[in-house]
Structures are given as C-alpha cells and as structure tokens.
C-alpha cells in the first residue's frame, strides 16, 4: 500500500512465482506430454515453442502478450487438464479466471481486473446474437494497453491490461477470424 500515491497493489504471486528462477531447457515430461497432446504437435514443433514462449512472457513479465490462444479439439484432448492442472496453479488462483462463453455477453467484467489469464471454455461466438460486440471487446482486451472495467452499480473505469486469453472449444469453428488478424 502506498498511501501517498493512493495505490494498493493487490497482486498475489503464485507459489511458482516465488521460487528461484532456474533456467530449464524443456518442460517436465508430463507437462510436455499434455502440451503436445493438446496442441497436437511433437516436442520439436515450432507451435509448441510459440505456446511456451507465450506462457513464459505472461508469467515473467505479467503483461498482456497481445495475442490469444484458441485450443480446438475433440472431447478428451486434455484442454481442461492443461488449463486447470498446469496453467492455473502456475499463475495462481488469484491471477486466473475461468469463464463460460455466455459471460462474454455480459456488460459486467470486474473479474478481468488484475487478472493474468482468462480462460473461456467451450467458446462458440458465431452462435451468439451479439457476436460482433463480443469480437470487438475481445480484440480490444487482447491488444490494448488498458481495458475498461465495469462492476455492477459502479461507474466504468480504465485499468492497465495484464490479461492473456486462452479459449477452448470442441467446435470446428469456435471464432470467425479475418485472414489478416494477427491476434
């Protein structure tokens, strides 16, 4: 707490963030196996390297990476195991939020404030009546340096954006993306 600047740091590091940073050349075998299975790649794949670098950036710098991951696969691929048993403990429960697709339509988003990872399970934006609004909000929240937070019965306010998005779906087309979209 800094009373002079009227600032209160509510960040709580996970147990892994508090550990000494020992450089490793590859993830532990079980985590590597889960990642490879979810991403449907081999350990030598550049996609695996990109996913690990994305996670490392979010973990080390605690900032928005400017891109999001969509994990698409059949039931049993391991998407939930990756997110709930690897990513959530790594970042800590206070820095991670898991939401349903329907919650993207809600105008209240206080759960995003200060969060490092937002996981949306079973995303399928094309079925929503408000798909254009959802996509515009997602694009903004993925790339902008600050985001607008709106809690119930409160005026909206801007906060720094630390948020990194992971979405998963069993649908073949969970989100319609433009060919030029880099997010």
Describe this structure in words.
With 183 residues, this protein is an alpha/beta fold. It contains four helices and six strands; from the N terminus they run ααβαββαβββ. It has helices at residues 29-39, 46-61, 79-91, 131-143; strands at 69-72, 96-100, 117-121, 146-149, 157-160, 164-169. The strands form two sheets. A four-stranded parallel β-sheet has the order 1-6-3-2, with helices on one face. Strands 4-5 form a two-stranded antiparallel sheet. The longest helix has 16 residues, at 46-61. The termini are far apart. The mean pLDDT is 89.
Point out poorly predicted stretches.
none
Give the mean pLDDT: 89
Strands, count: 6
Largest sheet: 4 strands, parallel
Rounded to an integer, what's the Rg over CA atoms? 17 Å
- Strand content bin: 15-25%
Q: How many distinct helices?
A: 4
Series of H and E elements? HHEHEEHEEE
Overall outline: globular
The assigned structural class equals alpha/beta
In which order are the strands of the major sheet placed? 1-6-3-2
What tags apply to this protein structure?
183 residues, four-stranded parallel β-sheet, alpha/beta, single chain
Compact overview of the structure:
With 183 residues, this protein is an alpha/beta fold. 29% of the residues lie in helices and 15% in strands.
Describe the secondary-structure layout.
Elements: H1 29-39, H2 46-61, E1 69-72, H3 79-91, E2 96-100, E3 117-121, H4 131-143, E4 146-149, E5 157-160, E6 164-169
Parallel strand pairs: 1-6, 2-3, 3-6
Antiparallel strand pairs: 4-5
Helix pairs in contact: 1-3
């Amino acid at each position: 707490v800094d009373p002079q600047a009227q600032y209160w740091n509510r960040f709580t590091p996970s147990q892994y963030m508090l550990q000494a940073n020992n450089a490793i050349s590859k993830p532990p075998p079980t985590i590597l196996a889960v990642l490879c299975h979810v991403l449907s790649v081999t350990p030598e794949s550049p996609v695996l390297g990109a996913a690990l670098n994305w996670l490392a950036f979010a973990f080390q710098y605690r900032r928005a990476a400017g891109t999001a991951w969509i994990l698409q696969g059949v039931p049993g691929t391991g998407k939930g195991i990756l997110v709930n048993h690897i990513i959530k403990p790594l970042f800590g429960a206070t820095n991670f939020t898991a939401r349903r697709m329907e919650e993207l339509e809600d105008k209240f988003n206080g759960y995003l404030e200060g969060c490092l990872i937002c996981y949306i399970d079973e995303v399928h934006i094309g079925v929503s009546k408000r798909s254009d609004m959802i996509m515009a909000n997602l694009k903004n929240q993925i790339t902008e340096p600050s985001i607008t937070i709106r809690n119930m019965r409160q005026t909206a306010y801007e906060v720094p954006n630390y948020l990194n998005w992971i979405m998963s779906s069993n649908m073949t087309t969970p989100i319609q993306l433009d060919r030029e979209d880099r997010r």
